[in-house]
Amino acid sequence: MADYVNASSPRPRILIVEDEINVREFCRLLLRRDYDVAAVEHGLSAIEILREQSFDLVLTDLQMPHVDGIELVKHLRTFYLHTDAIVMTAHATVETAREALKLGALDYIAKPIDAEQLQKTIRTAIELQRVRREKERLSDLVLMYQFSQAIATSLDIEEQTARLIEFIGRRFTPSHIGLSLIDSDGETLVTLIGPDPGRRLTLAATSEEALRIVHRQLIDRPSVSPDRWIEVILRSRDRAIGLLDLAVRNEQPPFDATDRHLIEVFASQIASALDNARLYRALKDQYEQMIAALAGAIEARDAYTYGHSRQVTHYAVRLAQELGLSADDIERIHYAGLLHDIGKIGVPDDVLLKPGPLSSQEAAQMRAHPEIGIRILEQIRGLRDILPIIAAHHERIDGTGYPHGLRGDDIPLGARILAVADAFEALTADRAYRPALSPEQALQILQEGRGTHWDAQVVDVFIRLMQRERLWEQAPRLRQPARSQILVELS
Fold it and tell me: Are 420 and 462 spatial neighbours (Cβ–Cβ below 8 Å)?
């Protein structure tokens, strides 16, 4: 894990590990002019000082008491990947030096130490490290740019959290990621990434400390050393909106200053994206509630059709999913299903609620409801892309439907889906002039009308779906107390 942020000490830092005092002092005095140098007598002392200070390079002897050079190189490669190692060896231990190179040492120097050779080797190592760190820095910049692009293209919270897992996983290989977000109500903390996604707990206060406490209740802190765990408050528009924490295993290198800085950048980017997505979801929920209220206001005029639009929407959305439509197309069908009968607001009560057969004039008024709905909804810019579905949901495949007599593929697919869902829901609902048909009877009627009244492929998929999942049992319709009313037949 590279540390390319070193503003406090611009000169490279070198740790000399040598049990022979003369050699140790010779190296220290030779190198201190160009580098910040510390010196210790054996590997155990080196491990202790490495816990407290960071070094760019360790120059170590191989044969030492307590902890030898080979073990020290292994320790560096396990816990301090950003610190390079050069080993010093007598001629008798050249094979050991080669073993150290295999373990990850950058180079070795033979004893007795030649001053010019030592300086040249150190300069080369520091330059190689500078080049490597620059590459890592550029790699991090590219990764951050890719991450910002990935989350900027979506307002979906689930997709954004998936991208966070992907990019943090690529950079840090964490053993644990926890992410929580304050809900739009401002009073609840929700788990987005953790052992139980979607779990909620109430925030007792709005302070950051309360946020940390509740986050740790939702997501247990992993059992790792403190230097292998990071916890970052997510902030957007100068306020806390959630918390991110991650950890690496004890056998992995700890987080250094660069890692922590990079994670803070990730946290800043995901905070802004999640805040925008949260606001978008809240607005979308309000939008959908408004649409449902509009649909409910129309259906409230008739006890027999109360809840009809919601049930039609349930069937239509599941059918669209089964047909493999895109998320955007499914969303359009969802809104169209809720609002497909909105035009009935323009149908007089004496027609809409008439307890008997409609005259030809009254039937014409009833059949005008798709076009009335279009005139109402075309004033709302955000609903204009669902208008073709609503306009054509009473068209028939053979061209005998209304209002425009469209046939075949001229009828939008969304309208063909909605027509099948609408028909099944109407057939299985009570009417003043007949009791509800059984689901099996309704499916038989759809089968008989495939290719003439309804799209054959859509009907076939719908029948298989209903026989497999029995959706009418999963979402029973709401009903008002019955009263003597009637609606027009499917035609």
Answer: yes
